[in-house]
Amino acid sequence: MNYTTLLEEVKQYALHFFKSHEENPFLYHNQDHTEQVVKAATQMASYYQLNDRDVFIVLTAAWFHDMGYYTGPAEGHEKNAADLAAVFLRQHGVDEADITEVQQCIMATCMNGQTPAGLKAQIVTDADLFHWGTDDFAERNKLMRKEAEARLNKKISKEDWQRGTIKLLSSHHFKTTYGQQILEPKKQKNLEKLRMKFEEEATPINISTKPVSLPEAVTSKKTKDRPEKGVETMFRISSGNNQRLSDMADNKAHIMISTTSIILSVILSVLLRKLEDNPHLIIPTMLLLVVCVTTMVFAILATRPNLSDGTFTQQDIDNKKVNLLFFGNFYRMSYDEYANGMNAMMNDRDFLYGSLTKDVYSQGVVLSRKYRLLRKAYDIFMFGIVLSVVAFAFATIIFGH
């Protein structure tokens, strides 16, 4: 079966379909949106290097996925679109297995909170909402609101629409790794902009004749003016920097362990056997042996993990004393206990930011210990290796003959 030729026929059918239904006032679910979905699906299909058959299934589903709006009510339009696709594909002699997969991909665009089965269906689902992770989000969202008002024949307030959109974007997750890695960051930025706009426009100004105490006013202003995005960026950068410093410390410790291991292997396999014939090398050899062993011990201590008991109590949650972001504080707890604790933390902004603060602080404490031990290891090795070389040279010159 020539999927490339068949796909071109699907495209021509779709374009003719939309042209013949121009009287329907769909401002969002129209040919423009469909072509954007096809373009996004093509982009992701290329990213995953799909074969011709899979590309045909994905793009056919993308062309048909919103045609159901023109043949029936908005509710259940996915089923109508899937039926249209099946009729067209059967007329063109497409295998039933291919038709079934096309229908499954179309039905996957139904926003029911379930994860579509299979990569092809996930690609179509993410392509349908591709604009959520692009700069076109604001403009497309306005068109969606206008279409909803025309379809429902009623005015939807800007506040209600923004509230619903925020809820929708907050609960949404891209299904493909492409969407999660490439589209999700921009989607989060769009969501943050929408939240800020909603708070600015929807929060009424409270005019009260009651006197407001200065401390409360100052506290409220500071809380309101604090840039939430800036705080999150600060925590992300701090945690990332600490992680990189920790990796650097581990690498330096590994270098020191490897170096001293090589020297020790030479001492034990070569020098010790020659000490009987060269007694003047006993002291320099023992000095070098002690230096290497001591250095290795400090380097190992710098990378040696330290775990707490891995448990917490409900009182710790209530008092906001436990840091659930570090596995060492919960690895012995049951999942339900941990999930309850995480829910409590996510629903309490002070608890959440307090945990992030503790996490960054704890990373700093661990880093301080690592670098102190690592510095001692390097100091011992540096001065010890110099003394050992001097001792070997002195013993060889004075007693070697």
UniProtKB/TrEMBL annotation:
Residues 236-394 form the Pycsar effector protein domain. It comes from the Bacteria. The keyword Chaperone does not apply. Keywords: Antiviral defense, Cell membrane, Hydrolase, Membrane, Nucleotide-binding, Transmembrane, Transmembrane helix. The keyword Cell membrane applies. This is Predicted metal-dependent phosphohydrolase, HD superfamily. It is found in: Cell membrane. Residues 32-131 form the HD domain. The lineage of its organism: Bacteria, Pseudomonadati, Bacteroidota, Chitinophagia, Chitinophagales. The chain crosses the membrane at residues 253-275, 281-302, 377-399. GO terms for cellular component: plasma membrane. It comes from Filimonas lacunae.
